[in-house]
Amino acid sequence: MAKAMGATITLPEELDIRAAAPLAAELSAARGTDLRLNLSQVERVGAQCLQVLLSAAATWSADGVELMLEEPSPAFVDAAATAGLDLSRFATTSTARDS
Length: 99
What we know:
CATH superfamily: STAS domain
Mean pLDDT: 87
Shape: globular
Distance between the termini: 33 Å
Strand order of the largest sheet: 1-3-5-6
Radius of gyration: 13 Å
Largest sheet: 4 strands, parallel
CATH class: Alpha Beta
Structural class: alpha/beta
CATH architecture: 2-Layer Sandwich
């Protein structure tokens, strides 16, 4: 039987330097629980938020709970690839729609 996920946090369109501290605080508040991060609305991603997400991946892994990226937008995937990040550190889901 699949394990039920905990909360879902939908991330904003802009994950720039101004979003890094609030993102870190929101993730910190959810620490210790299985968590889905919905990235479907993300249009811009800065290095600071990528660092926050990588730190969260390491923290969730160390805590033995799951952090899942849900519906990563093309902009998020491109930003991660440009930064040389391996998204396999996260569990991911995609509900790509045919256009």
